Amino acid sequence: MKQLAAALMASTTCLSACGVGDQLKHAWVFNVQDLQHKPVASLKVRFTDQIAPSCRGGTWKRVIVENFVPAENAVFPGADALSYRLEGQTLTIGRNEICDAYIGITGQLIGDHMTGDYYSLGEAGTSPLGYAEGKAE
Q: Buried-most residue among 21, 79, 94, 102 (CB within 10 A)?
């Protein structure tokens, strides 16, 4: 959960890597798990340079969800509008247009992989919900 805390406490100012970098030019597949490592959702996305509305600070850009498969009785907002922010090698993707009800994933990019956390963020603070892994196709 150190990655989650670091990502959420990071400056809201985007670094020079704010655009779709080489790592994000291809489709990515993310698998999200709960705290017991049970599947929550799988989604295939593409990253754009289109600015997305967000209640959170900083510059957020639109994510296009090409395929979303939620697990039975699991909650992940893959059918909602999603946006992303890339700060250095920290990628954060989430539902950021519903103020004080943010749900997302965040983690470190290493080459064409990402490992990190699944979380919720609201007025009561940040709550860990599980884990996330992603890979460029």
A: 94
State pLDDT tens for residues 75-123.
899 999 999 999 999 999 999 988 888 999 999 999 999 999 999 998 8
Q: What is the pTM of this model?
A: 0.83
User: Residues 72, 46, 7, 103: is their CA dihedral positive or negative?
Assistant: negative
- Residue 104 near residue 93 (C-beta atoms within 8 A): yes
- Radius of gyration for the chain, computed over Cα atoms and rounded to the nearest angstrom: 13
DSSP classification of residue 24 = G
Backbone dihedral region for residue 23 (phi beyond 0: left; psi -120 to 50: alpha; all else: beta):
alpha
Determine the Cα–Cα distance for residues 85 and 92; give it in Å rounded to an integer.
Answer: 5
